[in-house]
Design a protein that fits this description.
The protein is an alpha+beta fold. The protein is built from 6 helices and 4 strands, in the order βααβββαααα. It has a 4-stranded mixed sheet with strand order 1-2-3-4, with helices on both faces. It is globular and about 40 Å long. The relative contact order is 0.17. It holds the Pfam family PfkB.
Length: 133
C-alpha cells in the first residue's frame, strides 16, 4: 500500500497528472494507492482491478489541520486490519485480490478520522467509539 498527499505528488512529479502518477506507482507492486487531497477528499486506486475512485471530504468545520494526514492513515490501517487485509501473508493476498467495494469501509473510516481531527484544535484524533456513533 502507498499513501501520499497531492502536495507530495506535486512536489515529486512537477504537475504531472495525479492519476497517471498513481498508475505508474501501481506498476511497482502495491495493491492499493491512496492520495489525500486535503479539503477535496482522497483518490484511491485498486491496482489489481484498475478501479479508481475520488472520495469527497466529509463536511466539517475546519479548526486545525494538524494531524489530519496521520489520522487518515490511522483510520485506513485500522479499517484494513478490521477487514482482514493486513497482518499476515493471507491478509496481504486478500488485499491484492480485493475490489474497491471491499476497501470502501476502510477508506471511509480514514476520511472520517481525518474529518473529526480537523474539527478539533491540535492533533486530536477520534477514538474508535467516536467513529462507531
Amino acid at each position: 500500500m502507498v499513501k501520499a498527499s497531492d502536495e507530495d505528488v506535486e512536489w515529486l512529479y512537477d504537475n504531472q497528472d495525479l492519476r497517471e502518477v498513481m498508475q505508474g506507482w501501481g506498476q511497482h507492486g502495491p495493491s492499493l494507492i491512496v492520495v489525500t487531497r486535503g479539503h477535496r477528499g482522497s483518490t484511491s486506486l485498486v491496482v489489481n482491478t484498475g478501479e479508481i475512485v475520488d472520495l469527497p471530504a466529509g463536511k466539517t468545520v475546519v479548526v486545525d489541520t494538524v494531524g489530519a494526514g496521520d489520522s487518515f492513515m490511522a483510520g485506513l490501517i485500522s479499517g484494513l486490519l478490521d477487514a482482514g487485509f493486513l497482518g499476515s501473508t493471507k491478509a496481504r493476498e486478500g488485499l491484492r485480490a480485493a475490489h474497491l467495494v471491499d476497501l470502501l469501509p476502510a477508506l471511509s473510516r480514514a476520511g472520517g478520522c481525518s474529518a473529526i481531527t480537523v474539527a478539533r484544535a491540535g492533533a486530536n484524533p477520534p477514538t474508535r467509539a467516536e467513529l462507531e456513533v
